[in-house]
Amino acid sequence: xxxGQNHGPMSAPIAIGVLTLAGLALSTxxxxxxxxxxxxxxxxxxxxxGETPDDTRSAAGFGQFDETLSGTLSNSDGSAWAYAxxxxxLTASGMTAIGAADGGSGPPVGxxxxxxxxxxxxxxxxxxxxxxxxDLDIMGEFASWSFQGTSLDIDRTLDYASVGSGVHLAxxxxxxxxxxxxxxxxxxxxxxxxxxxxxxxxAVPAPAGLSILATGVLAVGRRRR
Length: 225
Known about the structure:
Elements: H1 3-30, E1 34-47, E2 54-58, E3 65-75, E4 78-91, E5 94-105, E6 113-126, E7 130-139, E8 142-149, E9 153-160, E10 167-173, E11 176-187, E12 195-205, H2 207-224
Antiparallel strand pairs: 1-2, 1-6, 3-4, 4-5, 5-12, 6-11, 7-10, 7-12, 8-9, 8-11
């Protein structure tokens, strides 16, 4: 067989190989976020005469965490109620977290107080630059939060939780280490108000990174020919 006859049957495997490599490359590119540490928990607590009952739930792994705590904690001298929840998920392309907390006192008022807390922390690394979007809405009583790393440094200390229209950022993050954390608390001091947050962070390959991947895949295809 001459070279022309040989080229036809080989072209299909080469094309399939290039497409497979492209798929693997894009799959790797989509795995932008590598998690290195976490601390996610919720807590309800009551301050009662002579005792302080509480209950806590925490995340066991880097995947989905979906927990709700709600209860009335009481003794013979008084009662208090507290509520806390958190739904969060960490994926290779970003993270989402929704949390809430609330608490109340009595009866009799003045002898007890309940408080709810929700805390989310995740640290991660990025091997190459990524484009990102960050959306955070907080309402309620008290909260503190931060997003810190190589090319972004925001640190908000504990304060009244309302942030108006929220925080909405977009841009490019350089390769490096990053961490996001938020602490939410609400109790009898603002009974019925409660606190809540809604956070979304998404990372996608920066255009330059996609261009390099595409060039590499095409180069492999040419060498195979």
